Amino acid sequence: MKTGWKISAYLVRAVLPYFLMSWLILTVILFVQQAGRYSEIFFSPNLPSSFAWQIAIALIPNVIAFTCPMAVLVGVIVGMSRMQVDSEITAIRSFGVGNLAMLLPLVCLGIILSFISLIVNIFGVPLASRVVRDTAMRSAVYKLESPIEPGVFNTEVSGLTIYVKDGDVENGHWRNVFVYSEDQAAKRLRLITSSRGRIDSNNQKSELVLQDAMVSTLSETLGAESIVSERVGELRLAIRTQRDEMIERLSVVQPSLEEVGLSELAEIARTGNERDRREASILIIRKIVLAIAPVVFCLLGAMMVLRLNRRGRGFGVLLALVALLMYFLLTFAGEQLARTGTVSPIVGGLFPLAMSALAASYFAITARYPGLFGWSAKRAKPEAEPESLRAAHRGRDILLDITTGIRDFDLIVSLLKYFVLAALFVAGIFIVFTAFELWRYAGSFDGGTGLLFEYIAFLTPYIYLQVASTGVLISILAVFTIKSRQNEIVAWLSTGQSIYRLILPCLLLMSFLGLINFIVQDRIATATNIRQEALRFKIRSRGVARKIDGRQWVAADNAIISFELPKAASDNGIPASSNCLAPCRLQNIALYKFGVDNGGLQSVYRVSEGTVEAGSIAVTGKGEVIEVREGKIERADIEGKSIETGLAGTLAHSRSPNQSTVGQTRDALKNASSDIEKRALTVSLEKKYVTIAIPLVIALFTLPFAIGVDRRSRVVQIAYAVGLWLIFIGTSSAFEQLGVSGALPAVIAVWSPPVFFAMIGAYLISRVRT
Question: Exposed e or buried b for every residue in 103-117, given b needs 16+ CB within 10 A?
Fold first, then answer.
């Protein structure tokens, strides 16, 4: 009996570390994916940091509830695969312990995890969803209290377009303010510039107070156009922020179905309309099934390993990925059948669970009776090697001859294999979670499934960049840990090879991988991110494309430019400002040039159509310039001519950071006029550069925990490496926030964590026992 308890405890200990590490890694990856939806809150220097912390904490329950069943399956398959390879399962069976006895402790572990998952799904997820919604609402209200942000053209104030170059965000004092207002009925245009400004607020009433203001009015009376400029000591413009109105409107918005508990869902399933009843029933079954899944996955994973021959942990990870993808594909199919009314929500929701139980039963039966379903337990005799394989082997020998040797070739191939395997696994989880989140919207309208697949296709480069660092970590730990357990590292070192020569191929490969990541980020992901973000909006709005305000604004030195893009450039709900690549065709262009030191309006350029190139606009349609000289107006035709804009690059640099290349971000930085905008762009630019170094840095601080020749506490060493990786990610995010807020120079904020952790890695490598 005592031996039985020891074996049970050993089985749990063999699975538990891999489960915990998988749970941790998957949670971090999916947390980053979810946090990306609230980047405006996390990285806004104008919002209190408490908002970011509340969002971060509230996102955790939903993520861990989803990743727990996945981690259980990965932990059981990888842990038991390791025992299978080391012949430990054979040794356990020699004590007379059968499959059922080995499954019992794993089932008990699954029951405990299912109970935890049930509590999180019933109570934690709805509460966290409400906190996320409440925090997002309060951040929107907070922005309304001070609607002006330096470096951003604000068009939310009714009738006004306001731009400030710089200022004190905390106190609300602005410098170099521009205000544009147009009265189309009176055919009057007013342009206001001011060296100083502030916002005075009192509940619903707010005023934009401009000091030392210069007002230029363009009006057309009886066919004659006039321009009048006057200097005003102080000018007050009323602004209605609608704070109370927005709070009242948001407070009466019904929470989404994901934000309510099981009792509320049951009430909706009983009394709601047909669509809500069906969705509520599907969500009830989903929450229950997701909570039961850890038990089923424990059985399924264990029976898969016990049925199949020794294949190693790499095969175990691949097996886990295939099982998870099949499970969630069955989930999507069952829920879609339930939405269309083909089957009941109970049948559709329990379909993946039933299929998993059936698969576990199949593996259990065939493990006991291998030939029952036609499978033979005997291995086929090896056939004579075909000539094609012999030719392939000869080619490999030639490849080894022109490389530095079999050791380097073996290390590089193994690292690449595990990197691809790990990246595919984590990317698969990423895709499953994304599809799981959007399926409720995509499955509710015609063509939604196709849009979802298109969205995932365009999302792939972004996913790769998100999971690449995780793939580097896992591949290095897997390759060098396996070779250490098999005493290959000891054998290499015993030949007189240096430990530094041993890790050289890994460092070179990671440097090359960093270069590949940079190319994907700069040449591929910038274009696909534009499309995938537009598709995500269209899916969540159930097929309705985003409505785009065609007029765009750009600030230059002593000049303001407004323009529109042709309709073809903003089809499919893609923001117009994201599609203008030099040379770019624009229409309805207006350029206003002012004198230095808050001088009045000096000239107005009006162009029906033009092409933007670096620093200038080539007029291709009708165009005129209106010059104001000593109170008199002079007109000139500029058709076919070129206008100097004062910008270093194109006008279209108003993209988000993940939609801009290095060159576009650098141009935007040159054209930026406010300190806040410059800091944000500098951080974004340096983050793009640091992408090249990230794989090498991760390799430096991971290798010391993987190449040690001491086989004791191997899991603890891996846990240290994973912990250091998590600290690196958290530190990098925190320092980036300090760079955006101005607490640290942007270059130091971005590069300090990689440099520091690279130094830690170099030190640890020098201390490795050989």
Answer: bebbbebbeebbebb
Residue 624: beta bridge partners? 606, 637
Give the bridge partners for 240, in sequence order: 205
In the chain, the amino acid numbered 617 is I
Q: What is the dihedral of CA 665, 670, 675, 681, to 10 degrees?
A: 10
CA distance 301 to 79: 10
Phi/psi at 204 (5° precision): -75, -25
Q: Which of 67, 42, 206 is nearest to 125 (CA)?
A: 67
| Residue 68 pLDDT greater than 80, yes or no | yes
Query: pLDDT per residue over 221-264, tens digit each?
Result: 545 667 777 777 778 877 655 555 555 544 544 556 665 666 77
- One DSSP character per residue, 698-759 reads HHHHHHHHHS-S--TTHHHHHHHHHHHHHHHHHHHHHHHHHHHHTSS-HHHHHHHHHHHHHH
- Interval 505-509 mean pLDDT: 91
Q: What is the pLDDT of residues 95-138, one digit of tens each?
A: 777 777 788 888 888 888 888 888 887 777 777 777 777 776 66
Domains of the chain: 1-147+244-377 (no CATH), 161-240 (2.30.30), 662-766 (no CATH)
Q: What is the dihedral of CA 681, 683, 684, 685, to 10 degrees?
A: 90
Length of the chain: 770
Contact present, 617 and 625 (Cβ < 8 Å) = no
CB 148, CB 199: distance < 8 Å? yes
| Phi, psi angles (nearest 5°) of residue 200 | -105, 120
